[in-house]
Design a protein that fits this description.
Layout (H helix, E strand, L loop, with lengths): L9 H20 L5 H13 L1 E3 H8 L3 H14 L2 E6 L2 E9 L1 H25 L1 H12 L4
Helix pairs in contact: 1-5, 2-5, 3-4, 5-6
């Protein structure tokens, strides 16, 4: 492990670990998706369907940025756009079978990485870490 990490404050330490974990998930997946694309897919998996405005708010990017990323996901076949009933302007974005498959594979990769972490630090430590991170301290 890099020595500089031992001197980091909690916020920077969590950020560094998050970055490394995201990079590992991305590398292990083999999918050509970037962080924003996988973030949107995860939000759609969680919420079922969202408008572009909802997506932009939930992942804290501009509406135009969300539209650009969604257009890429549409082209790749991971999401579909469905007209909002009674509103010719807005559309809901939802996962296709391909998008659901990517989410399933990502979950498997995350579970494998969690098992690797448990093998290094112990299952009880992983359980404790998850409990601490899940608590309402922010």
């Amino acid at each position: 492990m890099k020595e500089y990490i031992r001197g980091l404050n909690l916020i920077d330490l969590v950020s560094e670990k998050h970055k490394v974990l995201r990079e590992k998930v991305s590398a292990d997946s083999g999918d050509p998706l970037n962080h924003t694309e996988t973030h949107i897919l995860a939000k759609l998996e969680l919420h079922g369907r969202l408008s572009i405005s909802d997506i932009s708010r939930r992942i804290s990017i501009s509406r135009q940025g969300a539209q650009k990323v969604v257009n890429s996901l549409l082209e790749q076949g991971y999401v579909e756009a469905v007209q909002v009933e009674g509103n010719s302007r807005d559309k809901y974005i939802s996962l296709t079978a391909g998008g659901l498959e990517v989410c399933r594979r990502m979950l498997e990769i995350k579970q494998k990485i969690e098992q690797e972490i448990a093998a290094k630090i112990g299952a009880e430590q992983v359980k404790l870490l998850k409990q601490l991170l899940a608590e309402d301290w922010l």
